[in-house]
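tool_log.txt
---
The assistant was asked to compare two proteins side by side. It first ran the structure predictor on the initial sequence, then on the second. Raw inputs and outputs are pasted verbatim so the downstream comparison step can read them without reformatting.
(1)
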Amino acid sequence: MQQQQGRQPELVEGSLPVFVFPTELVFYADEQTSHKQVLTLYNPYEFALKFKVLCTAPNKYTVVDATGAVKPQCCVDIVIRHRDVRPCHYGVYDKFRLQVSEQSQRKALGRKEVTATLRPSAAQEPPSPRPQEEEGRLKVQLADSVFFEQTAFQTESRVVSGGPSLLTVLLGLVCMAALMLPTLGEQESTVPVYLHLSVNKKLVAAYVLGLLTMVILRT
């Protein structure tokens, strides 16, 4: 009886929430910089996760490191490049599926799907969101999607990804700025009192900055 109470409930396949940002990728044919997008996979759990990226149109995209692992309470950037920006692909919706599982298991504990589309130009963006008819058409188009693995493109080096994401750099700058602010209780300072930080807040900023530094060094 005690052994049954001590066991943790086994996760059901497909029941684990997967946290990915963004949930939609938009590529623009006339903007070379938009041909490379970054998906960030977050792992807020106390155990490591391994992931796999699948796609409905693998020949159109290059996924850097389509399989990998995420440490507990960490995140990983997945670089996706559009390889075929011909006009015949304008307006076509593809899907990426991120499957996650525990390191010691094969079954997918959770999955998250991200849509991807190619548009001619950012200047031709519609002024308002897609109408309900377009949303319905999109759901029908993607309802019976077949996903394929991106195994053919896993050999590309992560160095080509261009370094850390913009979000990582911005968080690092915020932490550095926090550490440079006066500590709460300092008298001789021209900085307004409301910008003085407590020692605990500065310790948190230093800890986050250390984590970001490790992430940057690994990219």
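(2)
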Amino acid sequence: AKMATAEGESSVHNVSDELFQNFYTEVKQIEKRDSVLTSKQQIDRLLRPGASYFNLNPFEVLQIDPEATDDELKKRFRALSILVHPDKNQGDPDRAQKAFEAVDKAYKLLLDPEQKKRALDVIHAGKEYVEHMVKEKRKQLKKEGKPLDVEEDDPEMFKQAVYKQTMKLFAELEIKRKEREAKEMHERKRAREEEIEAAENAKRQREWQKNFEETRDGRVDSWRNFQAKGKSKEKKNRSFLKPPKVKMEQRE
């Protein structure tokens, strides 16, 4: 579990602020240029470096508003899945397959009410965190007697901050999930090893008991023969050691 924690934390740190900034900026530029995106652009977006964490947010994968209706979700999935489907991208089928799997996974997750609620909770938590940080910044500026303007006053900067914080929250939850999964796997493995060891001990005990019972009669007979020989030898020895009878002398 400790190893899983170290690897997980390392993975999150690898998604550096610079990488995030580049990813966010490029995606938003493409979105402004083309709201639909071409097949290649969508595949590139879904398979960017760090995408294993960026794609944890199903709403970002499908590029759909969290408040979208089920019908809007279905239409968006259909349009996006067609764009990245391997059949439509035969020049790059392997990457297209991975992108399609990411889209399919996000869609299925949002079809599950419980999973969708969890995703929405993470998004709301990210937004609340940024709002809290903005308030704290203003308090500090006020304390220092400085203007209360912060960069998050710009709607785009606020949106970017929420996006970044949300991504980090999704990543942290994924790390915890992997840690829990690794721990459970380790416990199952240990329980299985103990079960096998107990079974082997029981088998050895049964074999010993069986062997003991099968050889018992032979041991008893050997012991009886040994005792019989011992008694016979003792009796024989007594006959050799028996003193001669002394004749009584007659009185004069």
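---
observation on (2): Confidence is low (pLDDT under 50) at residues 1-15. The chain has nine helices and no strands.
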